[in-house]
Amino acid sequence: MEFLGLVNYALFMGIFICIYALLALGLNIQWGFAGLFNAGIAGFFAVGAYTSAIVSTPPADGRLGGFDLHFVFGWIAAMLAAALVAWPIGKICLRFRSDYLAIASIGIAEIIRLVIKSEPVLTNGARGISSIPRPAGDLAYMESQIAYLIIVLAVLIAAYVLVERQFNAPWGRMMRAIRDNEDAAKAMGKDVEFRRLEAFIFGAALMGLGGALFAHFNRSITPEAIDPMVATFLIWIMLILGGSGNNRGAILGAAVVWIIWSVSEIATDRLPHEYAVQAKYIRLFLIGLMLQLVLRFRPEGLLPEPLRGDQRATKSGADPR
Amino acid sequence: MNLFELLNFYVVPGIVLGSIYALGAVGITLIFAILRYAHLAHGDMATLGAFIALAVVTSLGVSPYVALPIAILGTAAVAVGIDKVFYEHLRERPKIVTVMASLGIALMIRAVVQVVWGVDTQTYTRGIVRPEDYFGIRIRDREIYTILAMVALVGVLHVFLTRSKWGKAMRAMSDNPNLALLSGIDNKKVVMLTWVIAGGLCAASGFFLGINTELKSMMGWHMLLPMFAAAILGGVGRVEGAVLGGLIVGIAEELSVLVIPSEYKAAMAFAILLFMLLVRPTGLLKGKVL
Amino acid sequence: MKTKFIALAAGMLAATALASAPAQADVKIGLIGGVSGPIAAMAPAMIDAAQLAVQQVNEQGGIGDGENLVGVVGDSACNPQGGTDAATKAVNIEGVVGIVGPHCSGAVLAAAGSVTIPAGIALITPSGTSPEISGLEDKGTVFRTVPSDDYQGRALARTMKEMGYGKVAVAYLNNDYGTGLANAFKAEYADELGGEITQFAAHEEGKASYRSNLAELAKGGADTLVIFDYGDGTGLTILRQALENGFFDKFVGGDGMKSDAVINELGAENLANFVSSSPVGEQSESLDMFNEAFKGVGGDPDAIFANTSYDAAFVLALAIEKAGGNKADVAAAVVDVSNGEGEAIRPGEWKKAKELIAAGTAIDYKGAAGDHNFDEKGDVPGTYALFEVGSNGFEVITEMK
Predict the structure, then answer these.
(1) Could you give the residue ranges of the DSSP H alpha helices within C43-136?
(2) pLDDT (tens digit, 9 = 90+) per residue, A257-278?
(3) Do C203 and B217 touch (CB under 8 A)?
């Protein structure tokens, strides 16, 4: 029992890590390779999750859909919808640099959250959508977790391989050139704005897919899931801590941060019984402290971006001058 | 709706709210200008300031306004301490690393507040205060103090920045750090001063939010986004811009219920901000282009 | 550094495994709540109330052959991410036989959908009011001790109509709790009973000022404001600003507004025209017994959802006793110990219940927040009363039908 319990817990963590790794990969395309400070991950996550939920649930009264389609269509629709939402946003906002883009994207994510929460005809409003089908959900507890882990792992690996290939292709070199020295890239005749938009949309599509995987795993999606802390900032921590600009770093960061996030609760539960509630606050303190320590001793991330030529001098190119 | 109704229920509350936002936004804008990163722990630092004042009020039994200076000093000290321990060694790193660190600090400060003061909703003074009538304008003393304190604090800061030696050094750092360093400005002192000012204003912002409503452990976190919107709206690095931005965001939020459903009130700050960035990316008063 | 990190993580895991190994003799239940996050102010009292039930069980003979009942606290942070994480840990690492919580509906849906239903663990939420929870395909494992919003909203509307309230305006928090109550209230008050609702508006939590919202609500000339919100959160801010600025004469709240924070911060003298509904047992002595006991351990019985949390934990304990510690039977036993047939058991009467169970007599728990006769969806029909603020805190004015 003890052992099986640990296995079940590990499987669960594996699933969550894969989902978060997808989000971190998406962010890595935007920030690590194109230098776009997107702080509105939660918005694309939500669009993906709700799209897939609407596409794959049985018809329901009072809201859009459901269309009762296979979950694969839901996931594809999630990516398309997130990309579709990202397109006008990118078109308008990508002209802002760095921190301006950050605050603009936070704002857009908040607006998306409010719309999802307040428009019952679209998303069932504050109640959210439940009875979303879960692939292999009819199996027993552990088997269905294993099956779902295999599915999300396959999706993650596919995404990783595709993204990695793109990065090592001329496209990736061009993106880094744009990130590190926009003027030079422009002088070389690259369409900087279009390329940025491309990266923004690709990243958003991956985030949408992550949202869909999350919704199907929980068989429900509610506005509470679009909390900026767990759906935006946590992913930023993962990417920066893992190593931005490095896809493996993004995945490793997701794993490390989620393990800290989750396991820290078990550690603080060892406090005396009377402090059971306080332990939860102390847990958040420890998470914050752990973050400080990693950033202190490993500020370039656990797996830094591989140096291609001398990039040191321009590493902070995307930062304020 | 007559004019007084508009003033009493929409504009005056908007100005009070805007003053609270402004106090926070000034700190954010200074950190942006001099240290060049978004400080995400700003809201929780304001919470800390509010609770320090509460501790003084409950332990010494003094009026909240007596506790305010103590809270300002205490929070300023904490801000400097956090910078020394956690942010200082990240200064040469990409700024995003410090932004992430500040997120961790936000969690840590909130945890400290929750452990020390608990999570119950609290107030400085029990009971309710009905407003006084000044020629048709209904306003409470505490609201007048909020607005006056904001004007006074920002005024003093403005004089300090334009007249004193260290204020000029801060502005120099903001305009051109390399040149400032070359001309012999002590970087460390400027940074410390920035944190003293930002921390103190944070405490004032949290205090006035607390005295106008209640103290909750999440109160600062909820204010963070509007404060950022206000700072950028006014133009990064511009103190008077942050005040203007804060007031605009506050008043716009209150007026917004006249035209849009009230559940979208929180979106108002961002709608204005997006519009602003599109038509005038440097902010209302010409700030830095990041 | 990487290796250090992995070593650290592994160390934490190992410590966990070690620490939970010797605890086999205890019977564990998970107390999962939104300790951090938006309802941080409400969660501690709810968890304390559940811990009171655990304490009473242990003082009066424990589970089975005197085994200790242990409440393991988990933090759902009021979001699905935290809810599933906490539930997974409770079920797999702690090996709980049942869960009280999570508190927020979104976390309940996610934790039930991905953890407790597949694992066959009983889950009783004391505060998840969303109708979506009724619709879960839960194989009979998901329950709640809080009646669904629909019932309370309609009962409140009927009672208010009876008491002669006229034109009202409704302000509700924009989440599943506020929206659910407000819509049920509106359906009954305006559509069924022909009452007049002049304004009907949602608000976001955590803003500093709601005066413009109140000014909007006041348009249309209603003299009563109905607030569906939490009394130690935004609801308090709204009530304060309404009182201070002289909007509305009378105030009515849902069960979320019946919070001590309202009296403590605004003063009883200012709340003469404030009433709020709250669930009570059909025999209110059950509620008195709970209030007495909870005050005894330093708790505040008026805290929101404290009585439903207590009931959830006590029913779960009874079910575990009934099921003989057999995890798979706990869910069915929850229905058995509270289906309205058998000897009545009131809050705190663990010893009596234990003896009756041992003798094979049927028992029926009559809780502090209602009789809890679960229907096939795991819901309870509510029994509510309307409370006013008296000199000793909240006092019952009338039963709500």
Answers:
(1) 43-59, 80-88, 105-111, 117-119
(2) 999 999 988 888 888 877 888 8
(3) no
Residues C227 and C255 in one domain: yes
Instruction: Give residue A304's Cα distance to chain centre.
Output: 19
Q: Which residues contact C275 (CB under 8 A, 6 or more apart)?
A: C251, C252, C253, C386, C387, C388, C397
Which among B86, B115, B281 is the nearest to A96, CB-wise?
B281
Of B276-290, C7-21, C83-97, C324-338, give the lowest mean pLDDT range: C7-21
Distances in Å between the Cα of C148 and the Cα atoms of A220, B112, C126, C130 are 19, 36, 11, 7
Query: Which tokens go with C163?
Result: 């008491």
Question: Is A58 part of the contact surface with chain B (CB cutoff 8 Å)?
Answer: no
Q: Are the beta carbons of C52 and C289 closer than 8 angstroms?
A: no
Residues of B in contact with A102 (CB under 8 A): 38
The boundaries of the domain holding residue C210 are: 149-282+383-400
Residues 6+ apart with CB under 8 A from C346: C285, C286, C289, C366
Distance, in angstroms, between C79 CA and closest chain A CA? 5
C165 and C256 assigned to the same domain: yes
Chain A CB contacts of B228 under 8 Å are 103, 106
pLDDT tens, C150-196? 888 999 999 999 999 989 999 999 988 899 899 999 999 999 999 99
C180 touches chain A (CB under 8 A): yes
Q: In B7-139, which residue ranges form alpha helices assigned H by DSSP?
A: 12-34, 42-60, 64-82, 95-117
- Chain C CB contacts of A118 under 8 Å are 174, 202
Cβ neighbours of B66 (radius 10 Å): 13
Domain range enclosing A289: 9-318
Instruction: For chain C, say whether B265 makes contact (Cβ under 8 Å).
Output: yes
- Which residue in chain A is spatially nearest to B116 when comparing CA positions? A278
Look-up of token digits 């006041």: C218
Question: Would residue C376 count as lying in a domain?
Answer: no
Q: Is residue A23, in this structure, part of any structural domain at all?
A: yes
At the topology level of CATH, where does B3-123+141-279 sit? Answer: ABC transporter involved in vitamin B12 uptake, BtuC (1.10.3470)
Residue A88, domain CATH: 1.10.3470
Task: Calculate how close chain A gets to B87, using CA atoms only, in Å.
Answer: 9
Question: Does B45 touch chain A if contact means CB atoms closer than 8 Å?
Answer: no
Alpha-carbon distance B55 to B67, whole Å? Answer: 9
CATH number of the domain within which C220 lies: 3.40.50.2300
Question: Rounded to two decimals, what is the model's pTM?
Answer: 0.91
CA A276, CA A280: separation in Å to the nearest integer? 7
| Residues of chain A contacting residue C325, judged by C-beta atoms under 8 Å apart | none
Contacts of C246 in chain B (CB under 8 A): 130
Question: Above 80 in pLDDT, residue C23?
Answer: no
Q: What is the pLDDT of residues B168-178, one digit of tens each?
A: 999 888 888 88
3-state secondary structure of A102: helix
Structure ipTM over 0.95, yes or no: no
- Which residue of B100, B109, B112, B272 to mutate against A (max A Cβ within 10 Å)? B100
Shortest distance between the Cα of B139 and any Cα of chain A, in A, equals: 32
d(CA C180, CA C191): 16
Report pLDDT digits (tens) over A178-213. 888 888 888 888 888 899 999 999 999 999 999 999
| pLDDT in the model for residue A321 | 33
**C-alpha to C-alpha distance for C40 and C42, rounded to whole angstroms:** 6
3-state secondary structure of C177: helix
pLDDT at C15 over 80: no
The average pLDDT across A120-133 equals 89
Q: Which residues contact A107 (CB under 8 A, 6 or more apart)?
A: A40, B225, B229, B267, B269, B270, B271, B273, B274
Q: Can you give the pLDDT at residue C13?
A: 52
Contact C240/B214, CB-based, under 8 Å?
yes
